[in-house]
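pls read this protein:
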Amino acid sequence: MRFKNKTVVITGGGSGMGLAAAKAFLAEGANVAICGRTQEKLIKTAQNLNAGDRLLTVAVDVSKISDLDQLYTQVRDRFGKIDIVFANAGIGTPTGFGDVDEKTFDQIVSVNFKGVFFTAQQALPHMNDGGAIVLNASLTQHQGLANLTVYAATKAAVSQLARSLASSLISRNIRVNAISPGVIDTEMTGEFDQEMIAALQNEIPMQRLGQPEEIAKVVLFLASEDASYITGEDLLVDGGRIRLSPWQGL
């Protein structure tokens, strides 16, 4: 087991990619702390994972530094020092540029960038040297999508943060990388109608949506000693959508 006796913190761990990562880390022997905004959802998640004392759930709003401080205090009290952080929490609602109001702007930036920034910063005093941080960015930072201007901008900021933070933490041998998932089959995409799903699949060379478990495998790779010489990277996990043409026959 690659992560036996390691301690992992995952934000946004109650569903989707965060939950898939939690399951994968637990399966490889880690102690895992997951957080999300809704306590009731976290309770159900804990019951489903059935990991006993190796799982800690904490209700957290990652946009609030005081909540993050409470998270890391509880993790320290339960498991001790932290080895891995997966800053996964994020929000985003498609909104045209002209329709973005101040409240929407502040909400997206507070969770997607401020939250990721301070998730990493507040973890550092509690982390072992030689650990790993993985930030969840998005393929949208590589596209010009009219209805995701604020969301994409925050994800570009997360990608840059991974590089800057990686440079800052070289002396502690803490590796920092980002992932940029494509369209993943999560609760969010579950709200799309079949026409939209078909259109998205048509844009992806692999002709399918990604699965949360596929993202989890990449997160575990970057967090493991298998990626010991990788830091400051932003890895696309998108079925070839950005780098390849979907029209392979042309």
Observations:
- Residues 102-123 form the longest helix (22 residues).
- The domain at 7-234 is CATH 3.40.50.720 (Rossmann fold).
- Strands lie at 7-11, 31-36, 55-59, 82-87, 127-136, 175-181, 234-237.
- Helices lie at 16-27, 39-49, 65-79, 102-123, 149-168, 194-203, 212-223.
